[in-house]
């Protein structure tokens, strides 16, 4: 049972890292430091270092500011395609570090896959939102993302299975939303390219 709990926790942490790596690390570190959550398992307690927390929060702030500028937001998330998935796998491995070696390997594989999936979904949503030139939709998306990440990384330690199920349900909903948005954009572009009807 403990192994299954740890695997679920590793999955959720990597999932959150796929959405916002820096906020995940910073919130985890602060929450553990101030007793909001208990001691972190495995090698994950390394995020409680003030150096790690400070660096993560500075990068999270930079990411939030970048997300308010449409073109910059897409470029930032595109570059992070090479950062979030392996970092998510590393956080999953750190979560399961003192467990059985096979569990650590499964946690890394599962964590990398989930981080990649959540990142790719977020990237598709970001591209769609960036089609709008105003910063309000980007700000709403980024603020909601931060709130969701904070909720995941604080409740997963008490309710690992419920949190994992919630995470996967939200991911499924986001995938459907991204598909719907892109279908709407394609239809709008096709409609704009139709030649005018003769009068």
- Number of DSSP E strands: 0
How many domains would you count in the coordinates? 1
Beta fraction: under 5%
Termini separation comes to 72 Å
> What is the H-and-E element order?
HHHHHHH
Q: The biggest beta sheet, please?
A: none
**Overall average residue pLDDT:** 89
Q: Based on Cα principal axes, name the global outline.
A: globular
Count of discrete alpha- or pi-helical segments spanning 4 or more residues: 7
- Helix-strand category: mainly alpha
Share in helix? over 70%
Weakly predicted, low-confidence segments: none
- What would you report as the Rg, rounded to the nearest angstrom? 19 Å
Could you walk me through the main structural features you see in this protein, from its secondary elements to its overall organization?
The chain has 199 residues and is mostly helical. The protein is 78% helix and 0% strand. Helix 1 (2-33) crosses helix 7, helix 4 packs antiparallel against helix 5 (101-129) and helix 5 (101-129) runs parallel beside helix 7. The chain has helices at residues 2-33, 50-67, 70-79, 84-95, 101-129, 136-155, 160-193. 38% of the residues are buried. The protein has one domain (2-191).
SSE topology sketch:
Elements: H1 2-33, H2 50-67, H3 70-79, H4 84-95, H5 101-129, H6 136-155, H7 160-193
Helix pairs in contact: 1-2, 1-4, 1-5, 1-6, 1-7, 3-5, 4-5, 5-7
Summarize the structure.
With 199 residues, the chain is an all-alpha fold. It contains seven helices and no strands.
Q: What attributes characterize this protein structure?
A:
199 residues; mainly alpha; globular
């Amino acid at each position: 049972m403990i192994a299954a709990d740890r695997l679920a926790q590793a999955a959720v942490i990597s999932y959150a890292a796929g959405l916002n790596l820096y906020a995940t690390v910073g919130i985890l570190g602060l929450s553990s430091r101030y007793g909001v959550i208990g001691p972190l398992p495995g090698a994950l307690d390394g995020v409680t270092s003030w150096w790690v927390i400070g660096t993560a929060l500075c990068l999270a702030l930079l990411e939030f500011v970048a997300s308010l500028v449409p073109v910059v937001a897409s470029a930032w998330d595109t570059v992070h395609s090479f950062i979030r998935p392996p970092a998510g796998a590393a956080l999953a491995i750190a979560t399961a570090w003192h467990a059985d070696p096979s569990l650590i390997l499964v946690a890394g594989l599962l964590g990398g896959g989930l981080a990649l999936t959540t990142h790719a979904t977020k990237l598709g949503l970001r591209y769609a939102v960036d089609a709008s030139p105003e910063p309000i939709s980007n700000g709403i998306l980024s603020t909601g993302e931060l709130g969701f990440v904070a909720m995941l990384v604080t409740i997963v330690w008490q309710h690992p299975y419920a949190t994992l199920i919630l995470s996967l349900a939200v991911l499924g909903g986001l995938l459907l939303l991204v598909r719907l948005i892109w279908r709407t954009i394609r239809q709008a572009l096709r409609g704009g390219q139709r030649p005018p009807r003769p009068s």
